[in-house]
Amino acid sequence: MKATIDSVDYMLNALGGRLGLDHGRVLGGRGAFPVMSRLLHIHDGRFPDGTTRDRLFYWYVHSFLWGRHTGATETALNQDLQALDDGGVDLLIDVLRRSHGGRLQVSPDDFAGASMGSRFYPLLYMLTRVHGAQDLDSGVPLRNGMLGRLNSLQVHHIFPKARLRAYGYSRAEINAVANFCFLTQHTNLRVGAKNPAEYLPEITMRMPGALESQ
Predict the structure, then answer these.
(1) pLDDT digits (tens, 9 = 90+) for 14-54
(2) For residue 173, with 0-12 CB atoms within 10 Å meaning exposed, 13-18 middle and 19 or more buried, which class applies?
(3) Model pTM?
(4) Could you report the per-residue pLDDT of 161-180, keeping only the tens digit for each?
(5) Which of 70, 145, 154, 193 has its CA 20 to 30 A from that of 42?
């Protein structure tokens, strides 16, 4: 039991550090944790090398994007554990790829209908963290648990909800992942429901590189 707890703790720290998935709301695919813990158990509680870690995290991200451990969870979990024992991470990835019709590439169509509760929401947060996205007003790198008053991380609608509703967009379109970015609470309050055609050029002038980082 202690070894399992230690493995999960090690894994959470690694996911937070490598992928930026540092709080519960963006930690998708928890059904994959027994498989990842199994790999750590095989290697005395740690990753054997950086390549193995990154390959495992590649598998982990795609496992929650495609819902690998939803539905018939026990069947998928048994298959994954067997694949890991038989062929390591490479076979694990191959099994996942075959279960998804031979492809693991993400396409624009995969985001259709994706909102805050979807499997693609953690992907947006992960990309924000891994690529060092900056707050649009202050230019500071975005992360969970930021210090200071009004610095908590918030989801911002790039095109304001009220404006999109006025033009006849559906709720699903308004709350699509493609219309989200992360900002500090201070910047989110400052931007409010402004038209992006007005505030984005100002940001480009005031804080070069911040918009591009997003």
Answers:
(1) 999 999 888 888 888 888 999 999 999 999 999 999 999 99
(2) middle
(3) 0.84
(4) 999 999 999 998 899 888 99
(5) 70
